[in-house]
Amino acid sequence: MEFPEVIFGNHEAYLHVQEEIADFFSGHEEGLSAAFSAGKHMRATYKGLEHFFTDFTGPVCMKCKNPCCVNRHGFPDYEDIVVFNAMGIKPPNFNCSTVDTEPCQFLSETGCILPRFRRSYRCTWYFCDYCMDKFQAQEETEFKKFEILMQDLSRNRIILLEQFEREWLHSRPGH
């Protein structure tokens, strides 16, 4: 299933999608139990990943003169909004009138002001070459823990979105 695109720059459409998904979750709690469970697991996995990000990206990103964190990458897509709802959180209050190529509105002098679980999925998976080199240069067992947690996050996201899709399609007339 292709989820509708959430268009950058259209705040009303962004709010509409948020409301539509939130309403669907609140009206289908039983049918989305696996999605809620996967969301809970994802939130715990993000917590387990946090020290990796803090230790490795924090010092690099704070000193970067040309941050790769730009508004268009931080903007949540439809799937992100589904995941936020399954985790029981509201999507970030994104200012859609910002320029998409400007530094992300959540980027401060000390790094991102959003906890990792409230960021778009792209933010979790993107690392510049310098950060990746730092990750890979650490002790092998630590890097393996990082890889396992990232794979776990991805697997649970897939389970969550597949459950949402099944319930969404099942609730539609003619299915």
What Rg is obtained from the alpha carbons, in whole angstroms? 17 Å
Q: Please report which band the strand proportion falls in: under 5%, 5-15%, 15-25%, 25-35%, 35-45% or over 45%.
A: under 5%
Biggest sheet, open or closed, and with what strands and sense?
A: 2 strands, antiparallel
Work out the helicity level.
55-70%
Number of helices: 7
Q: Stretches where pLDDT falls below 50 for ≥5 residues?
A: none
* SSE string, helices as H and strands as E: HHHHEEHHH
Q: What class, by secondary structure content?
A: mainly alpha
- How many structural domains can be distinguished in the coordinates? 1
Number of strands: 2
Distance between the termini: 14 Å
Strand order of the largest sheet: 1-2
**Average pLDDT across residues?**
87
What is the 3D shape?
flat
Supply database-style keywords.
mainly alpha, 175 residues, 7 helices, 61% helix, two-stranded antiparallel sheet, flat
Structure, explained:
Helix 2 (33-63) crosses helix 6 (129-137), helix 2 (33-63) packs across helix 7 and helix 4 (78-86) packs across helix 7. Helices cover 61% and strands 2% of the residues. With 175 residues, it is mainly alpha-helical. It contains seven helices and two strands, in the order ααααββααα. The protein has one domain (11-167).
